[in-house]
Design goal:
globular, TIM Barrel, 2 domains, about 30% helix, alpha/beta
Amino acid sequence: MLRSEITNGQEIASSNDPHISSNQFHFTRIRSRATVARDGTGSIERFPNGNGFRKPFTGASAVVCIRRIAVVFGLAALIAPLRAAEPARPAIVAHRGLLKHAPENTLANFRACIELGLGFEFDVARTSDGHLVCIHDDTVDRTTNGQGKVAEMTLERLQALDAGSWFDPKFAGQKVPTIDEVLALIASVPESGAVYAADLKAAQVEEEVVKKAERLGILNRILFIGRTISNQEVRSKIKRTSMHAQTAVVVNDPGEFVTALNAPHSDWAYFRYLPSSKEVQAVHDRGGKTFVAGATVAGKLPENWLRAAEAGIDAILTDEPLDLAEILRKPRKPGR
């Protein structure tokens, strides 16, 4: 079933409650660069202590200060729930990278995604001599200048092909990358919260991908999809290789939701429809995360993107990552 995780929260600020007697009280203020206090005689004293201060006050100034504190903390109490209520933006996962702007599944494409702060989905296939490579189709016909089945080509023959010119001559010379190269690219940048989805196309590749990602220290950034989402044995094998690997289970429609929620060896629910906020919350309550893909979000569908975001979805896979990023950057309208 969706596993439980404990996430460390971030403590925003803290302070001691004021201790008040008939003549004096102490007020502790945290993280103040320079503070100004007025004592009972009307004089002003400055305490340039960046770590806070503790200063006695007496007389009427204490009453004034208490009122001010009450106002500040009262406003903070009102604002905090409003901030907490705003759902976090979902991670954007670019389907095969920026496939409308650069040749899909190439390093040039993936570098552009990283520069733009986007995660991406990459496909995993195997050559005839056992190397893992990044290409979507069973053949090289559509995305290179060659012909033939990927599984019948050696790595040397595959990488002799041009995987960029078919899209635009300025990408001439792009190669079909190895999975080692794709994972090394991900490992070359600091962790940012981006989600990188490994679409396992070929059989019996999951264990090798897990180990490669683990050696590079990026296993926590990779979400295993493709054959993973519908094959319990694949998920089980991934988890046997490393319990830290993240796997997804498919939810094709609401009728499958309860079954998916209780599916073994899964960390993410992979929705192929727009889930309700209750469904998303149910996954979160189990310690899992949520991912939406398919026809409802793949194209330029801003209303659907917003509905997914408002439901609290954790990641969206789309062919239009730049447009989605622009939509998510815009301030939410009242009522949304």
